[in-house]
């Protein structure tokens, strides 16, 4: 892909990327996880959930467009909302539009509090009286936000002009929007809209209204379509799980369940840390240098022959088992 003139790179729809992005911006107490369903069994272990980030593909026509809701003035309704004014920023913008509307939460256990951090707190207060377009320009020119956003860019030794490829081979256009409750009302925050979209008053559980709204939107896609993804912005579970496991009043059976949850969370975080490190470090020069060194030392030929021999052996064994070759 050619470098975007705005200086902002594409964002992967990966929960570990969004979690680290928020942490690097100073947010404490929140993490982002994949959501594969909106049923109660899936949502239950992830609560409390403070916002949803919906990724969808532009397919033309009316598919993927909001099927309900009305645009309202952000200032009059107490919604912090910024427009998207540059390419490739929609992922970070959706995350910021979400967290800026999540109220900070103090806790008697400090590690379980939710805080924006000084940088975003100043930005939230500074931008509270600004309109969506001005806020969008403010975010796009913020050096820390752009730096953190671009720290997850994919490394490539090549620069290719998308116009050189047939239309069907160009990268599909995807977009992120946020859903969350603000002052007892479910809002959709889409940076490409002029204003926030008001959907419905939250009655008991805001996720009930969100489920209906998002499912109605998904229904506008062709049956069986996989043109969307959903992320949950929720409280970081590690401090709470750790505290309860160390609490002697916690029932033994509950501790067994919590130990399993803690193990899964730590494993996921460790894997995510490795993946984010790989995203942030361009290893291609190291790989090229390794190939160059192997070639100069004369070791490349034997390595290639060994790999070919292993491939032939694998194919012969598969043929003997009656398996088809890929």
UniProtKB/TrEMBL annotation:
Residue span(s) of domain UCH catalytic: 7-235
Catalytic activity: Thiol-dependent hydrolysis of ester, thioester, amide, peptide and isopeptide bonds formed by the C-terminal Gly of ubiquitin (a 76-residue protein attached to proteins as an intracellular targeting signal)
Keyword annotations: Hydrolase, Protease, Thiol protease, Ubl conjugation pathway
InterPro entries: Papain-like_cys_pep_sf, Peptidase_C12_UCH, Peptidase_C12_UCH_sf, Ubiquitinyl_hydrolase_UCH37
UniProt site positions, description: Important for enzyme activity: 190
Domain of life: Eukaryota
Catalytic site positions: 90 (nucleophile), 175 (proton donor)
Name of the top EC class for this enzyme: hydrolase
GO annotation terms (biological process): protein deubiquitination; ubiquitin-dependent protein catabolic process
One Pfam family this sequence matches: Peptidase_C12
Sequence similarity: Belongs to the peptidase C12 family.
Protein name: Ubiquitin carboxyl-terminal hydrolase
Origin species: Kockovaella imperatae
